[in-house]
Amino acid sequence: MHREDGQTTDVYENDGVIKGKIGKEITNAMQEAPEQLQRVWCCCVFFCYLQPQCWPSCFTLCHAQERQLTNNTNLTEERIQLQISNTDLIKEKDQLQTRNNNITKEKVQLQTKNINLTRQRDQLQLRNTDLTRTRDQLQIRNIELTNERDGLSSNNLVLIKQRDQLNKEKNELLKCLSEKDGWTYYKSNLYLLSSEMMSWTESRRYCTERGADLFIINNREEQNFAIWKMSAGVRVWIGLNDIDVKNMWKWVDGSTLTSSFWASDEPTGQRRENCALTHGSGWADYPCNDYFQCICEKRILN
């Protein structure tokens, strides 16, 4: 140990002060202790050197101080660890608070969404109730209409049979009339070829006096019927003229000409050729005062 004169002496220099097993323990403790404890042990040894009779108490006191310093060191380390742990806990607390805030926001959003979904559900339930009621009404109406349809179908079958029977009887009557009065039955109408030759105006009067009018030809089939079945290809007046406006051909019922069957180079459009006739080659315009036979048409079904 250090003396006041600057020299170092060993703790065993004075065997009367420190000796034996206890002296060895003090020396070992000083050598193994940390720097702070070494200073404590040095103080103890120095005190024992000055007061040899107190060395047992000194030794006990040094051990107590050593334990206190050790406890203080341990407590300091525990404090540091607790501070670190506290810092971590504060961070964790902040994270949990942030997480809690986010969860709270999500909860509010979910509550709002739940309210909206509940409102939509209620609306859909009302709509479903209305649709169910409408469906039931439509099903009842469908049953009624089905029954009505079946009844009408039955009535329709009866009416079809009656119509067919009436048409059959009508055709038989028309055939009898045509054979009796010279009329020819064709597609529900009656046709008559005059035996006399007349002007176009006289021909029309001849037809109207018999409840008919000059023939109106609407299609190729009727054209063929007129020239081959009725007139055998000779010239006959038909119900077509441009008396009112030149080259504006109209039928006797006032309808305009749509389908035409003019012969080659017809109509010529010469002066006073305002009335039409038909023959084997087709239609032609002639002076209305010329004399030809005519075909009358009596419509049975208007």
UniProtKB/TrEMBL annotation:
Q: Which Gene3D superfamilies match?
A: 1.20.5.400, Mannose-Binding Protein A, subunit A
User: What keyword terms does UniProt attach to this protein?
Assistant: Coiled coil, Lectin
Keyword Coiled coil appears in the UniProt entry: yes
PROSITE patterns attached to this UniProt entry: C_TYPE_LECTIN_2
Supply the name of the protein.
C-type lectin domain family 4 member M
Biological classification of the source: Eukaryota, Metazoa, Chordata, Craniata, Vertebrata
> Which domain of life does this protein belong to?
Eukaryota
Q: Can you name the source organism?
A: Anabarilius grahami
Q: Which ranges of the sequence are coiled-coil?
A: 86-155
Q: Which InterPro entries match?
A: C-type_lectin-like (IPR001304), C-type_lectin-like/link_sf (IPR016186), C-type_lectin/snaclec_domain (IPR050111), CD209-like_CTLD (IPR033989), CTDL_fold (IPR016187)
Residues of the C-type lectin domain: 186-297
PANTHER family xref list = MANNOSE, PHOSPHOLIPASE, LECTIN RECEPTOR RELATED (PTHR22803)
Q: What are the recorded GO MF terms, alphabetically?
A: carbohydrate binding
